[in-house]
Each structure stands twice: as structure tokens, then as C-alpha cells.
């Protein structure tokens, strides 16, 4: 058990809290301690009934079930890998700049989520961070499934295409990529 605790404490601070909250909030919903309907973004309730927590909880909540567990785990992996790399790489020693980037991306995603009536914001925020990392490391060679190798600048688009091929919605990935591009520009 000490190895797991040591690993968790080795995660950079901002990523650690984001990662832990992204596990805790879905767990609270899955265990029925909080009704999942209170965790998602309903623009009507957020804008007209002053339920201001909804954009925050919608960022951390993911409905984990038999059909979505794999997607949830893959996105937790992306969160851990690319947020850690950004926090210890491009934003090393500058936590305020990293928090600013996350807040900028989150605000853009919340605005888009309200306009497009999106209920879950976890994947777009993770994809926006992955996009920023991939642009800052654009010439690095990365590996994807089955040993495919390509430049990091293509990674967000490869993930989008892969998700399209396996039958998922590409809206979340596309919004994340566009928001990441907006920050990076």
C-alpha cells in the first residue's frame, strides 16, 4: 500500500488534486452518495436556478458503468500523463501560469457547454491539456496503440479519429482540441 501512496504523492500538486477529484466525484455518484443528476451541467439549472456548482462538478464527474469504464480509465490516464508532463515541463516552477491555463480552458469549455447543452465537461478539459502539451512538444515522437508512432502534434487528432472509428462521439475531443488551440494561439 505504501507504493501506491508514494506514487500518488509523487504526482505534481495541481495534477494530483485534479486526478483525485476526478476519481472521488464519479465514485460519490456511483455509490449513490450524491445523485448524479446534481453533478452534471444542466444550463437551465445553472443559469436560472443559481446552481453554480454544476460547471465544477460536470468537469470532474463521469458516469462510470459497464459501457463507459474503459473510456473513463483512458481519460484518467491522459489526465495523469499529459497534465503531469505540462506541470513539470513547460510550467515547471510556474504553478500560477498552469492554473491560469486550466481556468482559461475550463471557462471556454463551460461557455461552450452551456451553448451546446453539454452535460459532461471532463473529456474536453483533458483533451485541451493534451492539445497544449502536444503543441509544445510537436516534434517529439509518441507511440499510440499497436505501436504506431508519429509526431506529438498529431496526437489529439489521432485520438479524435480513433474515437470516431470505435463509434464514440467526437464532439468532446473536438471541443477540447479547439479550446486548447485557442489557448495555444
TrEMBL record:
Main location, first listed in the record: endoplasmic reticulum
Domain of life according to the entry: Eukaryota
Pfam family, one: DER1
Transmembrane annotation, as ranges: 17-39, 60-80, 100-133, 154-175
Membrane topology of this protein: Multi-pass membrane protein
Record keywords: Endoplasmic reticulum, Membrane, Transmembrane, Transmembrane helix
Subcellular location(s) of the protein: Endoplasmic reticulum membrane
SUPFAM superfamilies assigned: Rhomboid-like
Family note: Belongs to the derlin family.
Function: Functional component of endoplasmic reticulum-associated degradation (ERAD) for misfolded lumenal proteins. May act by forming a channel that allows the retrotranslocation of misfolded proteins into the cytosol where they are ubiquitinated and degraded by the proteasome.
Name assigned to this protein: Derlin
